[in-house]
Amino acid sequence: MLGLTIEAVRPLDAAAMNQARELQARLTKPAGSLGELEELSVRLAGLTAVCPPPLLDSAQLAIFAGDHGVHAQGVTPWPQEVTAQMVANFLAGGAAVNAFARQTGVAVTVVDIGVAADLPPAPGLVSAKVRAGTRDMTVEPAMTRAEAQAALEVGIQTAHAMIDGGARVLLTGDMGIGNTTASAALISAFTRRDPGVVTGYGTGIDAPTHLRKVEVIRQALALHGPSWGDDAASDPVAVLATIGGLEHAGLAGFILGAASRRVPVILDGVIAAAAALTAAAIAPSSRDAMIAGHQSVEPGASVALSQLELNPLLDLGLRLGEGTGAVLAYPIVAGAVRVLHEMATFDSAGVAAKVEE
Amino acid sequence: MLGLTIEAVRPLDAAAMNQARELQARLTKPAGSLGELEELSVRLAGLTAVCPPPLLDSAQLAIFAGDHGVHAQGVTPWPQEVTAQMVANFLAGGAAVNAFARQTGVAVTVVDIGVAADLPPAPGLVSAKVRAGTRDMTVEPAMTRAEAQAALEVGIQTAHAMIDGGARVLLTGDMGIGNTTASAALISAFTRRDPGVVTGYGTGIDAPTHLRKVEVIRQALALHGPSWGDDAASDPVAVLATIGGLEHAGLAGFILGAASRRVPVILDGVIAAAAALTAAAIAPSSRDAMIAGHQSVEPGASVALSQLELNPLLDLGLRLGEGTGAVLAYPIVAGAVRVLHEMATFDSAGVAAKVEE
Predict the structure, then answer these.
(1) CATH number of the domain that A119 lies in?
(2) pLDDT at A230
(3) Do the domain assignments include residue A29?
(4) Is there a contact between A248 and A279 (Cβ–Cβ < 8 Å)?
(5) Of A6, A257, B88, B213, which cross-links B75 as Cys (Cβ 3.0–4.6 Å)?
């Protein structure tokens, strides 16, 4: 499935992009006055290979939840059981992302891809556990290659099922105590930047914990770097397996699944950015399906988005994850497409054009 | 009416703000992880003097439309009749702001406060013309003091009528060919910054037109500055009357009307920023009701928001006006309030707190 998905990820359609540029020029507004939204609408035409691209009126958020063996190294003050507790909170509708999703009209699904606890079945929960948390990457590979591939396929299947169900835009969410550590490790590997540069304070750790976190990442990279020849792009699945999280693998698959169906995917914060680098290493054109929802305060997010050449739509100082930044960005993305469907042209509205100077 | 409105603009309620801060600390998320939205929710509690502040589930945009005598000075390549044509476009639902408003669930009203043409009655149009466009401010005062006061009252009445009709948040919109010129003049007067610093390229003018625009503003300020003793804060209504637009007066009144009822008002771009400076000069605490929707590319907007100490929520390179930036920011503002209503607390959700380090 991964191979077929990779093959289906195609470049942007230039003809549809030209049509979108021409349409933007005829709409009743000064040329360029919608700023970044005009560029975004052109890219979405290219992605979907049609102008105007379909209205993004059915939006689905998938929150991939998993635990992390590296939690044992003291990289966060939050107990591991918070992952499962927050999954219950999402399913009960009591988390920040639920409030934002109700505001913006986004449907929320939680995918248990690797929570350490047994989770009872519940509406809104997809049970697709590959294993009950990763192994400690400072000691051994976080996942086997087969586990990483299985998690990638869970992500692809999740995306395809949502699209088959009518979703026109997908949004990434995540939950996993310790997952900013795995994110920073992945970002360091895929961008060749030092762990000290890409490692942040996550949910709010103190300075000694931050130092420990950076050292833990260095240790993991030193242990596993040789297994992929220290060139992450040469074998991205090996990188993902050794230092990633199950939710990173699920998210990378989710992004590839969206890209393979020419459906846009709005990225949340640093966990999504790490998964996005992984997806882009696996299938470079998947980058064209990605929309950076917001600028997380995590330094690794900036480094990753910069390498992907993605400009975040929002910059609100968020560092929560869950998909909150993606959900808040969704109305803007949908608005950018809606303009191409619903705005009048100068001709149709009888609005005079500007006099040439 | 203006006097009573000014008296009703009161400072933020400290007790409600403290309650909001305490509530934020108990919600199921790391402290501070919602960034600017936490501060915003605290301010909205202070504004409305209740915690949580009311859900912002009924949002009303008012687009104040007016023409400008200074158009005769060649400050824009757009014909003046575009103002009336765009009003018709708004009423037909074909403008960018209509597309965004449908996406985000904002109701749109157009207020004809000073369009040069006669506009036939239409659903969604409030006919409240004070005069058919301002006079040319390079030659004489744009409005008489009585006209400026009448336009301020139209704005106040519009806000009060919307709030009486159930609106819980107001959004500013504007339409008026030439209105970035009046905006830059107002911003220069209220911030004491040189016209060259606060004057932008509006809808997209060329360099010679920009030079002329700056010179036109200098000329108007030289002519009228002495009438308010060159101290804009000493008589803001005189400043507004001499160099402002009818839509600026309407918007300033609209902001004061919202603030007097403790209802938040989301500002759009540079026209709203100029009106906001005017409102803050008339009643300083009205600033606390203002939310900067976005960062317009117009330099005057940055200068004005900086003086008002308002951080814009969005920065998307927009320079369209109409209310587009305010409408796109609305779901974020509403989301910030919704969190206080709908999120679980650590206790209620049974989520473990972080271990103290």
Answers:
(1) 3.40.50.10210
(2) 79
(3) yes
(4) no
(5) B213
